[in-house]
Each structure stands twice: as C-alpha cells, then as structure tokens.
Design a protein that fits this description.
Layout: E1 2-5, H1 12-18, E2 22-26, H2 43-52, E3 56-61, H3 70-83, E4 87-90, H4 93-101, E5 108-110, H5 119-126, E6 132-134, H6 141-150, E7 154-159, E8 163-167, H7 171-178, E9 191-194, E10 201-207, E11 210-214, H8 225-230, E12 235-238, H9 245-259
Parallel strand pairs: 1-2, 1-12, 2-3, 3-4, 4-5, 5-6, 6-7, 7-12
Antiparallel strand pairs: 8-11, 9-10, 10-11
Helix pairs in contact: 1-9, 3-4
Length: 288
C-alpha cells in the first residue's frame, strides 16, 4: 500500500494511475507540516474524487492540542467521521481519546515521528484498536526487521523529508525580528538553517503551530523495498513536502518497480538511504 501527501486535487487521477493507494490531505489548524490545506467544507469533494479513482482519503491531524482546543478538536473529528475519511494521522493522545468516544479509533494511524522504536511500542497502540503505527524514521533496516518480526502491521516513511525538531515557538520570525529582517518573513515558507560547524542545509518552516526543522536530505528506500516487503511490511508512505505532485508520480511508479524487483530510476537525486545502514545510539529493539 502506497500512501502519499498531495498538493492539488487535480493530481488525484495522476497519482492513482502512478500507483497511489491513498492520499493524505491537511485541514485547517489541526494539521502540521502541510503540503496543502483543505477547508472542512471541501472534504466531501476530495472524498468523492478519491472514490472515483479507487484510492483512500487520509487526513493529517498531527497537531498537539491544548485544553482550549478540545471543543474544536471534537468538532473536527466529528466532521471527519461524517465525511467518512479512511484514516487519520495523529500524535496527541487526546486525539485518540476523543476519536474513541466517537467510535473511530480504528481510523487512526499513530505517527509521533521519533517515539516508536520497538515492537512493544507498536503492540501497545495496536492493542488500543488503531489502524496502524508509523515507526521512527531514523531506524536502521536491521532494527525495522526486528520490530516487523513481532508486528508487521507497521508503516514506514520510504521517501521524503522528515522532521527532526518541532517547537511551538515562532523561531523563524523571532530570529528575523532580532536581526531586523522581518520584511523577509513568510509563513509556511522554506528557509535553510546552516550551523556554524556544518555545511549541510537544514530546511526550517514556521507555520501557525510553531517551527519545524527537517533533516538535511530526504530519505529514499528504493534498494530496500524488497527487504521491507519480505519483512511483511505493506504500508509505505511518501511525504511530498518541498516537491510537487509530478515528482511524486515519478516516485510512485519507480517504487512500484523496485517492489516488484524490476529496474527503477531514482527520481530524487538529493535523497539518501544511509539511515538504513547505520546503527543509532539510543536503546531500541533488542537492547537492554
């Protein structure tokens, strides 16, 4: 199953033809790291377009909510239930509670970025009745295999930039205000952060939920697709932030070829698979 973010509703037929099984859209306020924002009243139109193209509609609901957000959260989740979206990505336990109250916990996919690093984590959330769990992006191929041997019902980010830091503070505008360059600030705009001791450029974006810093290069998994499939993993996600739907279509076609063991082309030359082949330093699966 290939799942991807999307920029435009007009791209649904193209992405479906390229091999997408589901798309992820963002909604006002409750989504973060967006490629688009779909007003609630337009969700039925997206649902129908997905139905016509035989793909599923998932929603980004990854914002961490405060107590003051609870009523709006309930209303938003109820709208998603009425529209009958096929999946909801979340990271806040409060979202799980409210979704459970509405009887839609089975639509949830737990995606906390860096927190899921063992099969115990996966089992805990699956036992609560969620649809799937997304693993931490920095795990090696061996570590992913150790988890999949116990619980293959997991999701992997196979391509795209991933967040390495999220702050609720408006860090970009704060900095530009201090250096007297607020005239150059744009919300939801990619800036690049360059540390004094490193040459790599880290994408940084400020949106209404805070500030997000991304890895210097996107992850790619072409050579690992058959290994992931042999582990029993069948949910593969592409994040199209900082790119476009045409590139995503190219990626989908070639990931399908890679999964089938056929010759493929790497559409994104900036992407890297190095994380699969290096061990991280935190204690995870198989470590005491």
């Amino acid at each position: 199953m290939f799942i991807t973010t999307i920029h435009s509703i007009e791209s649904i037929p193209m992405l479906a033809k390229a091999g997408a099984d589901a798309i992820i859209v963002s909604i006002p306020y409750f989504s973060i790291r967006n490629t688009n924002i779909v007003p609630f009243e337009e969700l039925p139109v997206w649902k129908e377009a997905c139905k016509q193209n035989n793909i599923l509609l998932y929603v980004n609901f990854l914002r961490f909510c405060m107590e003051s957000d609870v009523q709006a959260m309930k209303s938003a989740l109820n709208t998603l239930k009425e529209v009958d979206v096929d999946g909801i990505y979340y990271a806040d336990e409060g979202v799980y509670y409210e979704a459970s109250q509405l009887g839609i916990a089975s639509k949830l996919i737990y995606q906390p970025e860096t927190l899921v690093t063992s099969h115990y984590d996966v089992d805990f959330y699956l036992n609560q009745g969620v649809q799937s769990v997304s693993l931490a992006h920095e795990l090696s191929l061996e570590e992913i295999g150790s988890i999949a041997r116990h619980t293959p019902n997991i999701e992997i980010l196979i391509h795209g930039y991933f967040s390495i830091m999220y702050s609720r503070r408006p860090l970009v505008s704060n900095y530009l205000e201090v250096v007297d360059h607020m005239d150059s600030f744009l919300m939801n705009h990619r800036y690049d952060l360059i540390e004094q001791t490193r040459s790599e450029r880290l994408p940084i974006v400020q949106d209404e939920s805070g500030t997000h810093v991304f890895a210097a290069s996107p992850i790619q998994s072409f050579s690992e697709m058959q290994a992931l499939s042999q582990m029993g993993i069948s949910r593969y996600r592409i994040d199209a932030i900082f790119t476009n739907d045409e590139t995503t279509a190219c990626l989908l076609k070639n990931y399908r070829l890679a999964l089938e063991g056929k010759p493929f082309s790497i559409c994104d030359t900036q992407a890297s698979n190095h994380l699969y082949h290096q061990e991280t330093i935190k204690k995870k699966e198989g470590q005491s």
